[in-house]
Design a protein that fits this description.
The structure is a homodimer of 242-residue chains. By secondary structure, the first copy, chain A, is mainly α. Chain A is built from eleven helices and no strands. The longest helix of chain A has 22 residues. Chain A binds a DNA duplex (30 and 30 nucleotides) through helix 1.
DNA sequence: TCAACTGGTATACGGCGTATACTTATTCAG
DNA sequence: CTGAATAAGTATACGCCGTATACCAGTTGA
């Protein structure tokens, strides 16, 4: 009955599943999933590593629980009239969670099995599409097309080495780079984003809207999602024939 | 001059950078990147772990070299008249490489810095787009939109737990699942893919073509890629207004 | 021939997840 | 209230990992 008081009186509060998971999430927010070892979590709780195993089976399960915990926030996304707007809102809600907890991206990708919250998110997206009148085929293909984007993240794909400090050396490095990768340099120096960090949110929404508007158009023109004789599932576009 | 013979005579061929990398690739093909530890590579070469460090700086660099090695194959992709067809062909070439070497996906995603072959692939895609007349803005956004797909892979996002063996137990598990995730079950049981493993290649090409055709249409209708007052970069679609 | 260099080895350190066996704290029945 | 049962936490150890350091032997070049 008053067990909790007893525990506090005898030195420190007892461990429980929730406290282990919360501590692990804090640690992961600060130091990433790599920095969230059983030993680090235990230390932060002022406890022996093996104490954790009285509350969770192993590290893999801990990561699952951490993930499900932060993904719960996605569920409370307000509805919308249009299916695409609703899907859009839900995916952007996922993105907000993933931005706050960057390690969740790695967690999603490294899980061997889908966790309940992962399934729930996907189920809700598919339900919105069905409600919007999409065929099962189109729902299926669309989920594939959205793939990782449904979680609100894209991988950074252009982490380039930082230029040398010495100006002369830097100039030579830039020149070498321009010779090896002219198109990259052309884009970087021509577009309005030149030199500036680009707006990740805007880029994410661009790609998302590109996919969603494509799916919408397919739903209007080719709802049964047939396959043409060339093996392409999309209605042939002028520039894509061949 | 005859150093190599000497080496052979004295027991076994000498180690070199290439042999280390090749062995590591073989190991990764068979057992994944996780299974490719310095110790495992050394053992396969019948050598002490520390011997490897005479030829490569550390494991991180080894993975870089492995990656660049297999990505070289992408370069020899035949040209095409249309920019989108050419991009499509190159990405599908990347996909063929990544299918043969599944660990390369993890390698690309875990690298802190882009390697030369990674940059070369991206540069060539961007060059094709520039040649096709796309604006730097559109090239930029398109590269973001293609993101991981430019490497020819999508993450499996629905690894569901395998059903129990006992038939009765399985029936109950299915029922529970259907109650929790009705849309997932609806899709799985309604679409022609019901029960069957779906065609990964076809799904990949679907998503790729969805993106490419969307980019092509933008290039025709809105080549400068303006941003509307709602912050959307795409021309407003009927169903996406809101 | 002998010094310098290079390739390979031996040993060790600090990290990791976790199995096993134990002690201590708490709970609950009589 | 007491004592047995149970749960929580600890101690120790094992086998992995990457790699620093020190050493030794084979090869090369002067």
């Amino acid at each position: 009955m008053y067990g909790v008081y007893m525990s506090i009186r005898s030195g420190r509060p007892r461990l429980d599943r929730v406290r282990v998971i919360d501590t692990a999430i804090d640690l992961a927010d600060a130091h990433g999933l790599e920095g969230t070892s059983m030993r680090n979590v235990a230390e932060k709780l002022d406890v022996t590593p093996m104490a954790l195993y009285k509350h969770i089976a192993n590290r893999s399960q801990l990561v699952d629980e951490m993930l499900d915990r932060v993904l719960e926030e996605i569920a409370s996304t307000p509805p919308a009239d249009d299916w695409a707007d609703a899907v859009r809102a839900r995916i952007l809600a996922a993105r907000r969670v993933l931005v706050r907890h960057p390690w969740a991206r790695d967690a999603i990708e490294s899980r061997p099995l889908a966790t309940p919250a992962v399934l729930a998110h996907m189920d809700s997206l598919m339900a919105l599409m069905f409600d919007g009148g999409l065929s099962p085929e189109l729902v299926h293909h669309s989920m594939h097309a959205l793939s990782t984007r449904m979680w609100g993240f894209t991988r950074d794909v252009l982490p380039t080495p930082k230029p040398p400090d010495d100006p002369e050396e830097r100039a030579r490095a830039m020149a070498d780079f321009a010779e090896s990768y002219p198109a990259i340099v052309r884009m970087a120096t021509t577009s309005p984003h030149a030199g500036l960090a680009c707006d990740d949110d805007a880029e994410f929404e661009f790609a998302l809207d590109l996919l969603l508007s494509g799916i919408e158009r397919l739903n209007e023109t080719n709802p049964k999602m047939g396959v043409d004789q060339a093996g392409r599932m999309l209605p042939t576009e002028p520039g894509l024939s061949g």
